[in-house]
Amino acid sequence: MSSLHQFLHHGNYSALQAHLVEMNPVDLARDLEQMERGEMLMVFRLMPKDLAAAVFTYLDSSLHRHIVETITAQEVRELIDEMFIDDAVDLLEELPSNMVRAIINNTSPETRSLINSFLKYPENSAGSLMTVEFVGLFETMTCQQALAIIRKSGVDKETIYTCYATDQSRHLTGAVSLRSILLNDNDCLISEIMHAPVICVHTSEDQETVARKFQEYDLLAMPVVDKENRIVGIITIDDIVDVIEAENTEDIEIMAALHPSEDEYLKTGVWRLSRNRIVWLMVMMISATFTGTIIGHFEEMLRGAVMLAVFIPMLMDTGGNCGAQASTLIIRGMAVGDIDLKDWSLVLWKEIRVGVIVGVALSLLNLIRIMLFTKAGYQIDLVVTLTLFITIIFAKTIGCCLPLFAKLCKFDPALMASPLITTIVDAFSLIVYFTAASCIL
Amino acid sequence: MSSLHQFLHHGNYSALQAHLVEMNPVDLARDLEQMERGEMLMVFRLMPKDLAAAVFTYLDSSLHRHIVETITAQEVRELIDEMFIDDAVDLLEELPSNMVRAIINNTSPETRSLINSFLKYPENSAGSLMTVEFVGLFETMTCQQALAIIRKSGVDKETIYTCYATDQSRHLTGAVSLRSILLNDNDCLISEIMHAPVICVHTSEDQETVARKFQEYDLLAMPVVDKENRIVGIITIDDIVDVIEAENTEDIEIMAALHPSEDEYLKTGVWRLSRNRIVWLMVMMISATFTGTIIGHFEEMLRGAVMLAVFIPMLMDTGGNCGAQASTLIIRGMAVGDIDLKDWSLVLWKEIRVGVIVGVALSLLNLIRIMLFTKAGYQIDLVVTLTLFITIIFAKTIGCCLPLFAKLCKFDPALMASPLITTIVDAFSLIVYFTAASCIL
Q1: Average of pLDDT values for B25-39?
Q2: Which partner from A230, A371, B150, B233 sits 20 to 30 angstroms from A294, CA to CA?
Q3: What are the structural domains, with CATH classification, of chain A?
Q4: What is the DSSP string of A37-79?
């Protein structure tokens, strides 16, 4: 950063240009983000076109808009033409629609038609994730012919390490690694060394499914085919890493009863942050009032034994925590593919037994504690111990059932995480508590 | 699966062998896991050595042990020699130590010394994650010489798509992609086309840091160097994808107050599952009793106005949920690198404002609700509204501060997630509640 500044201040532009091409695009983008905007634009314009396109994709989205608005239409056109199609489409999706129209009308006809077809794919589908810059070979070629094509066309391709073989009508028939092409004889046919069948996805497949396949088969790239099994693009692992992180963030946010958001925390406004939180909070606040109603129902009993109120927080918290543990394990297990709907009976039986073990341990510990430190009388001790035990087993059971049930109904299981379960378990534990109290006291 | 069975039943072993080499190792491993163990072993032994080694790495760990115990020492030796070193080390780490000793003594001397040096790296370090099967080139070579080396040695290498250039003493000096070697002239020098400096990690670096670097720079492979900057291995992206998922699972489990575990849920025993949950549950149960003590302290007041107890669950739940939302966003923000310790003032100021907005909205909604449906009297309405408002702001504040504070003290911020915060917020809200009640009533 300071070195870029120095070059600028001394007006030493050719040395700056030489320095720029030596830098890593990621680092360069980070430095640019910290510069004053006029200087940033000056440096940006000094970069060769391919570097500028690479750096641009790593810049923050607020800077994207600033740059596109500031540079000339001709420069925008060159930038978009130089970018990989999937990056260009990502850029267009974050710009306002009038700008998008202006940009698309301004690009080269081929780029324009490509972008248009990309914009038609649903968000988060394999089609929206893919890039069209792949090496396609015919299965009838020899290794030597294939290498010649890769040498000639490889420069503009996102990855050349896996090539895809097709028949004459461009139906996907096999995959062949650059490694096999290199390591085999010159006149060996592609059809002899290619792998078939190829693991591939359809354009409309959800990105989460795509990510699972990548992980399952340890792939670096995967072809995307249309309904007629013709290859239309590839997805590369670097985009999949981002998908995995985004899906994880979404799950974690939903599990904490947040409306999921793709924006960075520090760059999200206070109103937006509040809106993302408030709906679920309201729902849960209202439902928690039912729990209050239960207490209201037993008001008379509580007046007679106010001591009962002392144990309410402990019962509610422990039940909530037990439920949260169970639901978290099940939600995560389903997300990473370890647990499937058909395992429901195994899961349920496991959680019931865990509930019994945990229930015995915790209620015994608690019994000892209240007998030693609280002078509530043995009747209340009994009520508390019994309630705690039953609540824990219930919490573990409901904690594993709800996510499975959500999956069955095709809802996101993450919705069934701790806040919702806490509310249900709270109500249950209070009903058990007061019922037990009215029987025993 | 059924096709494998058919071959076996007809005793058609040569056809089975031909069928096996056509299959994807991942699918093959899945099929083997579902077979009866004797048949599984028979099929396993029919595979060519390299396929057997690939399939073996995808098998479940219980089968690993079964196979290693059943096949001959000679077969184990061939299997280990054929596997990539990092996979072999992973296998050894899951076997009991007497078996490990027997296996290591039995492998070839080179493999043995490699495995031994690997076993010295701390778990989850870059050293334990790397593989030694990379292509190393000298910077003084020409592209043609480099290609000849890749062709000759490439077969046994985990990836040949990025090669690393060193000076004569094997100090890492640059990285060069197979793509550049292919696309440049035959007599172009590696030193002219290589990238420098190379983004690399030290053997002792934590795997989470390594994963961040991979994501930041969109890499497919990264070299690992020793203290003298000599290249000792590489880490490939497929292992990083697994690291990312494992780190996410760990975070999610810690956030739900679970002792993190790397085992699959369905394969973990009931006692183990219970042990992973019980310690935190006990800690939180004991701390929740302090909340109960607060109620006990105000027993007299509660006896006079039992109605107050009705609102306790709603206040506790809402406070806990607000705190959980804030802490989750901050913990996740820090995990993906969006939020840094130095941003603490920005975060705090944001959360206070969000707290005010959410607090106003929720307490107004609640006020309307209790005025309409609960006949508690305007004094209690006032106490509840005031407590709710203050609790929400407190929950948002403490929810963002605790994870930051944990990071400052070098603890895992995920420890400060909802269960712990719930306990703190519960106690706080009850103190505010009863204090307000004693002032106003």
Answers
A1: 86
A2: A371
A3: 2-120 (1.25.60.10), 136-236 (3.10.580.10), 265-440 (1.10.357.20)
A4: HHHHHHHHHHS-HHHHHHHHHHS-HHHHHHHHHHS-HHHHHHH
